[in-house]
Each structure stands twice: as structure tokens, then as C-alpha cells.
């Protein structure tokens, strides 16, 4: 029987498609459809468009013999897809009207979608922005990663403490993925090496008795803006083979066999929730290998099906390693070429190095990946052999360059001769790549001079910088429709794909009418956020107060504590000195702490404790409010960022590789208070020193203090009464009346000469910079002018610019090629 569907009306062109999906994909009659079903049917209707375009795109790449670019990343922090796909396909209005025709509100439907949180923070979100830019630029760019069953944990706040809850985002599946069981990939793991010889008597090791992992690709279509190109993000889910260890079945231990099956499916179960910190766990190593092995096989198969030879491999294929997490790809490609395709080592190595490029994301020592040799031998015996051989040949090169320099040899070796011996993944990635890049100008310099000076001396041409960017489609066009409409009304919509055109706003920066229109939009965005704060924290904040926002992962180097010390200072000024601020302020925090990171979790408790004290003290009389919004994630960031007046970016200089949150805030018209760290420096260069509040030590000064053992925080506290007062309040239980000693460990770490983040060294400068902010905000016309100039001058930080640089300098790939 045929469904009765309404005839297509011009005002509701997609109603029929949504209704058909309700009926035939979900088995739900339109009249009874609850919101979640309406969301799903809408997504499926949008997906139909994506699939058509995806197939057209692949055919076009095939015909043009486009160079393929593969972005390997253990994390893709995608967020929601419905709105983004509708905007990029140019279908937002049409779907909005079609849903309205059915009596549904598109915003309510969009709110049904669960974020795809397959990443921790900046590194994973960068991967997501890059996919958007590659599709928008018409580059044949593919993402490869893991389809985690559980993404980053959901954060709840209980009595001021973070509680982690599982993020079962795939509970009912997702309409944004196409599962391809027929393209499954079989991967060997564990087992042992048999040292054999081939017929000519050459050493020919054989990998025996391995177990198999099966990777099932789940493809997510990635629509470029304008809808012409739809690329693919391929995420693998681990599945055990049906005949997984049939021997056990046959000997009768049925339950043990089923248990083993559970174990192999564990591989894609959950994302490791640490940001800038390595776990060192076996399951994590298996995860890294699993997705890399699936990806490399897929890449090689696609190449051979078109070209039949490896001669052209590096001309047709570029592989970017997002940090060292996928660095095993170097060994895996070598294994495929040498063991399975019988290439000589020399030829295989030339192909490998010409194909790979590596992006470094951090200078923090605790984040540099190392794996015990014994563990790697156990999990990946053949890869460990290959890594030893790579290292052997590499060390010969080092010896030739620096004869007799054994210290340098030990420092550069891929194997760290420690107890236990460890594989240094960054060294493997560098040796096996033709390009090594940092993610902001300062960071890339520090990679050369501090982190890897020996490698820079050996391979100076390999090192380069690619300053990060973010996609203006999600972070301005979609997140801030009010500002988008205002900008487009004045300068047209070309900026969406050419962000430099925002400079067209500069002449409007002093025009009162434009400033007022801008201010009205900002005020409306603040109202939306105020409502979120009420809904999630039961706290009333005024949209007329200055919104100062510190939203990012909670980490000591990002210095949420420095921000808090200033808030405490302002609170004490009010209640002790009777100093009433000229205008009210709302301090807003959001961010997750890694579940095992005690110091970070204590910072969350402290933020909530300061909030409880300040918000409930009648003497403060609403002059300052402090809010911690739980569960920071992409969809929440899209609400928070457009509402910010002041963006707080105050990491210790030299610690934040780039930052991308800083870019999102500034392009939405927040002024930055920040240190000379990461991309803040380049933001300052673009927007002008007079349009940003910069303070604090430089990376060089931080280094000099560290090198000279010259940090004396207690002396700072003794000589500056303002600082002493803040620390006394913290240490004597003013914010923890129920447990006066709770925050003594915080005071002790702040007063320790070993505090790696030098909080107290920057505190006075930070307080002064906040006073400058205050004076400026008190002059609204001046503030608005700076705000508009920030938006106008942020073009450099579009990820389109970043991707064009990768394509030209590293991948040798042409957009629309
Ligand atoms: C952009 C973004 C980040 C990165 O923020 P930084 O300030 O650069 O650390 C982290 N999480 C989410 C959800 C983001 O959108």
C-alpha cells in the first residue's frame, strides 16, 4: 500500500521526503511523530542529498585523478551535523519552511541531536574544521579515525565536583553514518615472529599465530559550503570475527569464546579522555594500531585499484599524521610494502617518507608519546622489528653526520635506552615523514629550538609552520546568525568562503548606527546564554553585565587559577575595601578535566566554591557573578562564544601550542585578554596591539626564569599585599567553610618554586590588564570600535587559509583538482 503523502508545495519542498522517511525508514505515521523521530527523518532526508553529492564527488575525483589527502586522527570532535549540513548544502531555509509546514520548529528539531564528541578538545576540533575546509575548497580530503561507541564523557556537577557519565551517543545509531560491512578490513595483532629464510637464503621473518581484528567502516559525509563537494570521514568500529578462536568453541568452552569476542570489540568502545597527557595503556596502543592498519590498507587498495603500481604512490597520496597517535602508520606502510608487496626496503622507505607528514601539537613533556618496547613486541612483534630496522638505518645517518657523538646518538634514537626501554613515537614520526609542522609561529620556532633541536640540525628543510584556523561556517555563519546577517547586509556573503573580505567592515567600525546594530546582536546572544546559565546552574546573570569567559579543557597550564585569583581579588575589594565596580561583570567558566587529573578536578571544585561564595554574598549585590556551565562541548561552545565580551586566553607563555578557542571568540567580536602565547601573538599582529589586552611574561622570559631557578613565588606574595590577601583568603577556608583546609594544596602549589606555570609571576600584570579592560568597557563607543575591528581583521584564522598552506607546501595537492 502506498503512503498518502501531500503533494509537494513550493513553500514546503522537503515535506514529502521527511514524511517518507518517517514512514518507510522509521515506521512512524506523520501525525504521531515525536520530536526524536522528526529529527531522525529530517536527518535522513538531508542525508539523501549528501549521498548523491558524495557519489558525484568521488566520480569527479576518479575522473580527474585528484591527489588524495588522508588526515589520520584518533580524534574528530564533530559536534552536531544537521544545521551544519543544511547550511553547507544551502537547504536551511527550504527545510525550515518544510518543517514549519508540518507544524515543527527547526531549532527544536536541531536540539534533538546528540553531539558527536569523538575527541577531547582543540586537536580533535582542528581535525573537524580541516574536514570542512577541505570539502569547501574541493580538495580530495578523507578523514580516518575510530567510531568510538562512547565519546568524551558527559560532565555533571555534583556539590561542586565533576562527575563523569558515559556518553552513549550511538545508543540508537546515528543517521549521519553509512555502515559498510562489505568493506570490512581484517587486521592482524599479537602473535610471534618465526625467523625464516626465503629460497635465496635471505632473512624472511614470518608473523605467525596472530589474532584478527575486524574493522567495519562507518562513513560520515562531509559537505563543503555550497554543496558541490561532499567528502568522507571514515570511522572504523572493531568487530570480532565470527570464527574468532573456533578452537575454544570446539573444545567446549563456549563462554570463554564469547568473552574473547567481547575483548576484541572493546577496541573501539571508548575514547581515552585525556587531553595533552598519555595513558600508556595497552588498549590505547591497540586502538592506535587498529585504525592506522585499517586506514593504510584502505588507502593502498584505493591507490592500486586506480594505478596498479607503487611508482606513483607519493604523487597521488599524501597522509597527514595528526600528532603522534597515528605514527605507527609509518611502520605499517613499510610492512605492507616490504612483506606483502615485496618491495625492497630502500624503495619502500623512499615511498613512505615522501608520503607522510607529521603535525606536532604540544611541547608538554607529559604529552609526548612513548611505548615500552616489551609491550610493543607483545602487541605488534613485526612492527617492532621494522621500527628497530628503521632506527638502525637512521642512527647510521646520525653517525655519518656527527661521528663519535654518542650523546647525540642516544638523544635522537627512536629507542630510549631507559628502564624499561621505550619507543619514542615523535622520533618515529619525524624520521618517517618529509614534513614536520607546528601549529602557530611561536610553537613551530620552539619545536625547532627547544623540543627537537638535533632533528632540526639534521633535517632543517623538514620543519615548517602551519598556524591553525577554524572554519567560519560553523564558528560564525552557523553559531552567530544575527552577526552573519548584519555582516552580509553590509559587505555581501563572499566572506563565508573568503574570510579576508571581512576587512570590508573596517570603515564601519566607528559608525554609530553599525555599532548599535552590532551591540544589539551581542546583547541578544548574551540573553540566550543567560538563559542557558539559568537552565543549567539556576543562576540569574544580567545580559547587561560584561561577560568574561574562560572556556576550554581544565588544565593547569591554561591557568583557570589565574583567572580565579583575579576574581577573588575583585571580591575582596568589594567586601573588604568597599570598592564598587563601575559596572557588573559575569565570569563564566566551562570545561572538562581528565578523570584522573586530580589538580584539574580540584580547580573545578574551587571555581564552584568561589561562585557559591561570591554569588550569595549580599555585599556583592550582583556586582560580580561567577558561573560554571557544565558539559563543555561543541554545541555549547556555539552558544557560549557569540555571547562573549571578553575572551580569556591566559596560558603560561610557551605552553599553549596554538589555541583555536582564542580565534573563535575574536571572530565573534570578543576582545581578548591574553598572554603572548600560541596564536594569541598572531591575533595581536592581525587585530593591532591597541585592540587586544596583552600582559605577562614572554616565552623567553619564562625560559630564563626556569633556567636560572629564579622563581620565588613566596617573595612575590610577601612583597605584594594584594597577592598575599588573595592567597590568605584561599588558604584559610573562606571559600570552603565546610572544610577550611580543602584548598591549602592549591595555595601550596601556587607558592612552590616548582610551579611550572608561574601563576604568581603574572598575577599583578593580569590584574592591571583587567583594569585596562574595565576602563575601555566604560567607554562603549571605543569598545565597540575595537570589537568590530577584531571581527574585520580575523580573516587569517580561517581554516581555509591553513588548509591552502598544507595543500601547497606539504601535500602538493590542488583545490578543485
Ligand atoms: C575550540 C574548542 C576547544 C579548543 O579550545 P582552546 O581554547 O583552544 O583550548 C575545546 N573544546 C571545544 C568544544 C572547542 O570547540
From TrEMBL:
EC nos: 2.4.1.1
Class in the EC hierarchy, top level: transferase
UniProt cofactor(s): pyridoxal 5'-phosphate
Pfam families from the UniProt entry: Phosphorylase
Keyword Glycosyltransferase: yes
Keyword Glycosyltransferase tagged: yes
Catalytic activity, as annotated: [(1->4)-alpha-D-glucosyl](n) + phosphate = [(1->4)-alpha-D-glucosyl](n-1) + alpha-D-glucose 1-phosphate
GO MF annotation: an example: pyridoxal phosphate binding
Coiled-coil spans in chain: none
Keyword annotations from UniProtKB, A to Z: Allosteric enzyme, Carbohydrate metabolism, Glycosyltransferase, Pyridoxal phosphate, Transferase
Gene3D superfamilies, sorted: Glycogen Phosphorylase B
The organism's place on the tree of life at top rank: Bacteria
GO biological process, one term: glycogen catabolic process
GO cellular component, one term: cytoplasm
Positions where N6-(pyridoxal phosphate)lysine occurs in the chain: 664
Signal peptide: none
SUPFAM superfamilies for this protein: UDP-Glycosyltransferase/glycogen phosphorylase
PANTHER family linked to this entry: GLYCOGEN PHOSPHORYLASE (PTHR11468), GLYCOGEN PHOSPHORYLASE, LIVER FORM (PTHR11468:SF3)
NCBIfam families found in the cross-reference section: P_ylase
Family membership: Belongs to the glycogen phosphorylase family.
Function: Phosphorylase is an important allosteric enzyme in carbohydrate metabolism. Enzymes from different sources differ in their regulatory mechanisms and in their natural substrates. However, all known phosphorylases share catalytic and structural properties. Allosteric enzyme that catalyzes the rate-limiting step in glycogen catabolism, the phosphorolytic cleavage of glycogen to produce glucose-1-phosphate, and plays a central role in maintaining cellular and organismal glucose homeostasis.
Descriptive protein name: Alpha-1,4 glucan phosphorylase
Taxonomic path: Bacteria, Pseudomonadati, Thermodesulfobacteriota, Desulfobacteria, Desulfobacterales
